[in-house]
Design a protein that fits this description.
seven-stranded mixed β-sheet, 20 helices, phosphoprotein, Bact_response_regulator, alpha/beta, 23 strands
């Protein structure tokens, strides 16, 4: 059936005549008596043709035509009038009316004019439909190309960036984030863009719990946050959850049905792409391992590190690089043989592999040097890992078997992006500098590794008649001798100020002495500290009057004469390492202090073992 026609005339006879004639030809007709009612009808429905009188009370036909053309520049209009000067008039031509008919109108003339106008209207409708079909075809073709590209690029890093870019594009979303499943089954944040603030995006989400039902349905769903509508799009391949995308800030103000439909299609292909990428990565890792140790080769490791550097720069993340060296491996090879040297290397790699996470990567750089990359790990975390790594190596049976005949000189160093450098070479250089510092430290020169805590304290303090401590230009300074009586208190004040100034810095602080009192400078200095201090702070000694403190953890050691005779401060953080140990006598105070990281770390480790304190 042809489209509707609107007849506007104050003459009831003409309205009835036009309605009857046009209805007989199969047209749907709406007739009104003035322009005001006509505009109300046009606001409610679309008309292929408007047939209007020129001379009417109020708004005339010319003004009505102008208003109609403002709404739709292609609106078909036929003017009718008793006036003979309307046809071909300048006003009619300017308004672009389809035809002008003079009353009384011949039936044939009216029907001919209407047929021509309706034919033009139908041609416009057909053209618009074809344009919409072409646009729809182009859109689906574009969507198909995007889907095929997601399947043709197995690189996970590329996929993660491309998925949110494509989802944002097809859904007209200005902001997008993507979580991808990791080796433990959790959804980890891998990519984000647009107007999102990273601090409000969870780093990890569990696919279980509230999310499980939504993810299993594998269908996009809409939610509402404080700013706008959010579209969540699960990535599921063959029932296996591969990721979750979050889209927000749509350009159109809200997400439409076609956005949800296209996002579902794209997400299905993206899930398959991610799944294939993970499989390929696993195969690559199997093929890029050293035969003897199963560690990755250096080529793969540097490529992986380059991608990690890009991610860290792009998303403001941090990661740490660790280097380990068996300094005396050539000696082991000479004295014990090549097979024992290989056993030692294999045991070290096995020990490290037991304590690394799925996302960590270990590589063999040379016969005696190894690299580890720890994503999302700050410098303090890297230092703690070095300690754990050395302990794990010492406990490995293959290493123990070799060390029964010849101890291994294992040394490790750490660096963190971007604190220590922003490219791979800088980070490696910083690691090796720290390895050199450990080689030159008192910890190695005095062979302190095997001593219990208090035996090491006695050795470091010595007596006035003890020989001077060995020095090395590469090592941090260490001193023993008389110290000022106020040094212990002044250091507590300065450390408290530093902790309050930078509450987010991670670290360990142990303060020990004869008594745990509420008037200790450290306790007073941290009374106004924020409740979320990242450093862990412990007070060791005999209980006096400190009941509880929001920033301090007391460790009450009643009757321990060694603690009663000494005072010590052991501080290890991302930016500082310091140890002060002193013994007060009848005359001057005798003490030892150092900023040698290896010594400080060793003292803290032995203190934790001595009193069964929980490691960081």
């Amino acid at each position: 059936m042809a489209g509707p026609i609107l007849v506007v005339d104050d003459d009831l006879f003409f309205r009835q005549l036009a309605t009857d004639l046009l209805s007989q030809r199969g047209h749907r007709v709406v007739a009104v008596e003035n322009a005001t009612l006509a505009l109300e009808e046009v606001a409610r429905a679309t008309f292929d043709l408007v047939l209007t009188d020129v001379v009417m009370p109020g708004v005339d036909g010319f003004a009505l035509t102008a208003r109609l053309r403002e709404r739709d520049p292609e609106q078909e209009v036929i003017l009718v009038s008793h006036r003979t000067d309307v046809q071909g008039s300048e006003v009619a031509l300017r308004l672009g009316v389809a035809d002008c008919l003079t009353k009384p109108i011949e039936e044939a003339d009216l029907l001919l004019a209407v047929d021509r106008a309706m034919e033009r209207a139908q041609l416009r409708h057909e053209r618009s439909r074809l344009q919409d079909e072409n646009l729809e075809f182009a859109r689906f073709h574009n969507l198909q190309q995007r889907c095929l590209e997601l399947l043709s690029h197995p690189d996970l890093e590329w996929l993660q960036e491309r998925v949110i870019a494509d989802l944002g594009s097809v859904c007209d979303a200005q902001s997008a984030a993507l979580w991808v499943v990791d080796d433990r089954g959790d959804l980890g944040l891998r990519s984000y863009r647009g107007l999102l603030d990273k601090q409000f995006l969870p780093e990890k989400m569990s696919p279980e719990g509230p999310l499980s039902l939504r993810l299993r349905e594998a269908l996009p769903w809409l939610a509402r946050d404080e700013r706008s509508t959010v579209l969540y799009v699960p990535l599921v391949a063959a029932g296996e959850v591969m990721g979750l995308a979050q889209l927000s800030d749509p350009l159109t103000g809200d997400f439409r049905a076609e956005h949800t439909r296209d996002a579902k299609v794209l997400a299905d292909f993206a899930a398959v792409g991610v799944k294939n990428g993970r499989k390929l990565l696993a195969l690559q890792r199997l093929g890029l391992r050293d035969r003897d140790t199963a560690a990755y080769n250096l080529s793969y490791f540097t490529d992986y590190a380059s991608k990690e550097i890009y991610k860290a720069r792009r998303y403001g993340r941090t990661f740490s690089l660790l280097t380990f060296s068996i300094d005396n491996l050539p000696l082991v090879r000479v004295r014990l043989g090549a097979s024992e040297a290989k056993k030692a290397v294999r045991g070290i790699i096995k020990a490290l592999s037991k304590i690394i996470r799925d996302s960590d990567v270990i590589a063999k750089a040379s016969d005696q040097e190894f690299y580890l990359l720890l994503p999302e790990t700050d410098f303090f975390g890297a230092m703690m890992f070095v300690r754990r790594a050395v302990a794990a190596v010492r406990d490995e049976p293959e290493v123990q078997d070799v060390e029964q005949r010849l101890p291994l000189a294992l040394v490790g160093g750490a660096s963190t992006f971007p604190k220590d450098g922003e490219d791979f070479d800088e980070l490696v250089h910083r690691c090796r500098r720290r390895m050199d510092e450990r080689r030159a430290s008192l910890q190695r020169r005095l062979m302190l590794d095997g001593l219990p805590f208090w035996d090491e304290v006695d050795l470091l303090l010595g007596t006035p008649n003890s020989p001077r401590l060995p020095t090395d230009d590469r090592a941090e300074p260490s001193r023993r001798g008389k110290v000022a009586d106020v040094l212990f208190d002044e250091l507590q004040v300065e450390i408290a100020r530093e902790l309050v100034r930078d509450p987010g810095s991670r670290g360990l602080l142990y303060v020990g002495g004869p008594e745990i009192r509420a008037d200790l400078p450290l306790a007073i200095g941290l009374e106004q500290a924020p409740p979320d201090l990242s450093s862990r702070i412990y007070l060791l000694g005999r209980r006096v009057d400190l009941e509880s403190h929001p920033a301090l953890t007391p460790v009450f050691l009643e009757g321990d004469e060694r603690v009663a005779r000494h005072e010590f401060i052991l501080w290890l953080s991302e930016s500082a390492s310091y140890a002060l140990i002193q013994r007060r006598g009848r005359g001057a105070t005798w003490g030892f202090h150092t900023s040698d990281t290896a010594v400080v770390d060793g003292l803290i480790s032995k203190l934790q073992a001595e009193y069964d304190l929980q490691p960081y």
